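pipeline: protein-struct stage 2 | run 1193 | ATP synthase subunit b, chloroplastic
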Amino acid sequence: MKNITDSFLSLGYWPSAGSFGFNTDILATNPINLSVVLGVLIFFGKGVCASCLLSDLLDNRKQRILKTIRNSEELREGAIEQLEKARDRLRKVEMEADRFRVNGYSEIEREKLNLINSIYTTLEQLENYKNETIHFEQQRAINQVRQRVFQQALQGALGTLNSCLNNELHLRTISANIGMFGAMKEIK
């Protein structure tokens, strides 16, 4: 053993007696450091139990975790309620949209039928106006033809009368007409 001790002394691991230095041997210094730390804890922490302190820390941590879980559950329930409300609103809006869509389509169909009926009515009126115009124009044309025929017949009759009439026949016709006029006067 003497060889091991001498070798430690010669390497500088063990300081010589009466001098102060650092020991760099980890295996030799750990038990010493632990005993010093435990001694200080026991001396200054009288009445404080390390397991009690650890238990309190764990209880506080547990309470915070449980509180966080409760808060999360409350938030989850609130989110579920909001989700259900949003789904209800969505269903209502979809039903309203379907109703508007159906009403819109029926309104469009109604307007289309009204427009078609209006167009048919307008076409019938135009057809009636056209027929009235054609009838009016036909009557006007017939009247013009009648007037021309009458004028031509009158001119022909006057021409025939003028060529056949002489003074004596003319005077006799005038006398007969005057006689008829006088007879008409007496009848009245």
